[in-house]
Amino acid sequence: MIQLIRGFKDILPGETELWRHIENVATSLFEDFGFKEIRIPVMEKTELFARSIGEDTDIVEKEMYTFPDRKGDLITLRPEATASIVRSYIQHKLYASDPVRKFYTIGPMFRRERPQKGRYRQFYQINAEVFGLGSAYIDAQLIFMLMSLFSRLSVTDTEAHINSLGCPVCRPDFRTAISEFLSSKTDALCEDCQRRSSRNPLRVLDCKVPTCREAVTDAPSVLDHLCPECAEHFDILKTSLKNLDVPFVTDKRLVRGLDYYTRTTFEIQTGSLGAQNAVAGGGRYDGLVKTLGGPDIPAIGFAIGFDRLTEITGLKASDFEQKPDLFIAALGEKSQSKALEWACALNMQGIKAETAFGDSSLK
Fold first, then answer.
1. How far is CA 171 from CA 164, 202, 246, 355, in A?
2. Do 53 and 59 touch, CB atoms closer than 8 A?
3. Angle formed by the axes of helices 46-53 and 82-91, to 10°?
């Protein structure tokens, strides 16, 4: 018997109804906030992810499903959605009439990670992205919307962790400070971080290897190196979240694993998932549209891990299994013919009617 590929899973009836319920709650909320659905391909040119996510990241170096097509061009199954949405925004000139656009998408992503509880090689995400607004107020609104989704799904054990990564003006100063700090920690770093400490030192702060995490415990904080504009942006974000009654903590170690982030970064963490406690995350990527060939337009977005979200809702697939409204019992060929007509007529009126065909028992 042919089995599933390791790290993949089937979503069976019952569970699909549960997923559809969560999707409906999310899409209804997002559309109330002015978001419109966008659907993007599951495959893109590898260059798109290398240029956006960053060639030094674990995702690009180790986790992407990449292969050549018949012409020899490198193609990658999308490991995340933001880069594809940015590419679509640029390619179709969606900024032409109005640069302010809000999109959401739901679908599968692919990463060749080590399979573990709550992590799959094909995993599903809910993504929301906002283009054309650089204000900290939209950052706060996006985090508020995200927390509101958890509330609507009766998930209460959540907290927003926020940080700022600065901008091209102030980040070089922090990069120098973190590089000097890491120069004395080389022996404690894993092989990847030893290599990255000189090329992209911020990546070291995102490493999940225990020895690396311990080594950077007392590392410099980017918050101590923000320029006045970035500091004001972060202050407005914190004040706005307080005014919106969003529970949050400032997490100076929060970097996220993608190179395109600037200024605001955030994660939603829960106590319901153990060590793997992040159920959603995102941030601002003000330079990415320009990096990928578009105009200089700010943007921010987030992704929710769908598989993890289903774990913490407390909802069960059995609660969503659909049962017929009525069953038409038919004995004999003529009765079955009539039962077929009745069942189809009722189905067309929105009534879930079923009947038995063939020689099976009615018991």
1. 10, 10, 28, 67
2. yes
3. 110
Q: Which amino acid is at 92?
A: H
Every domain range in the chain assigned CATH 3.30.930.10: 15-170+226-318
Q: Pairing mode, if any, of strands 326-328 and 353-355?
A: parallel
For 15-170+226-318, CATH gives 3.30.930.10
In this structure, what token pair is assigned to residue 98? 């109005």
Handedness of CA 286, 291, 297, 301 (dihedral sign): negative
Label residue 219 by pLDDT band (50, 70, 90). Answer: confident
Integer CA distances (angstroms), 213 to 122, 205, 219, in order? 27, 7, 10
- pTM, 2 dp: 0.89
Token couple for 203: 């990546």
The percent of residues in the chain predicted with pLDDT above 70, rounded, is 96
pLDDT, position 150: 95
Written as one string, the DSSP assignment of 121-189 is: SEEEEEEEEEES---HHHHHHHHHHHHHHHHHTT---EEEEEEE---TTTHHHHHHHHHHHHTT-GGGS
What does the pLDDT look like over 86-115, one tens digit per residue? Answer: 999 999 999 999 999 999 999 999 999 887
Q: Give the CB-side neighbour count of residue 144, counting CA atoms within 13 A.
A: 17
What the block records as the tokens of 260 is: 């395109």
Question: For the residues 256-274, what does the mean pLDDT come to?
Answer: 82
